[in-house]
Write a structure and sequence with these properties.
Layout lengths: L60
Length: 60
């Protein structure tokens, strides 16, 4: 979700900046607990109010 902070310090909802097939890869240097939410925001037009599935892959 794209929520930029304006120069006056307020958060604003904006259209998403990612496309289908984009990904984020992270490397944990220590044990972690990760919580991910793909919940729609009722007042956010992101994805036309239609959240789409995500895929998570964890390597040990």
């Amino acid at each position: 979700m794209n929520v930029p902070i304006s120069p006056n310090g307020k958060s604003e909802f904006s259209d998403g900046i990612s496309e289908a097939g984009k990904y984020v890869q992270m490397k944990a240097e220590t044990d972690i607990l990760c919580i991910i939410s793909n919940c729609p925001q009722l007042n956010n037009p992101c994805n036309a109010y239609n959240p789409t599935p995500i895929e998570l892959i964890v390597w040990n």
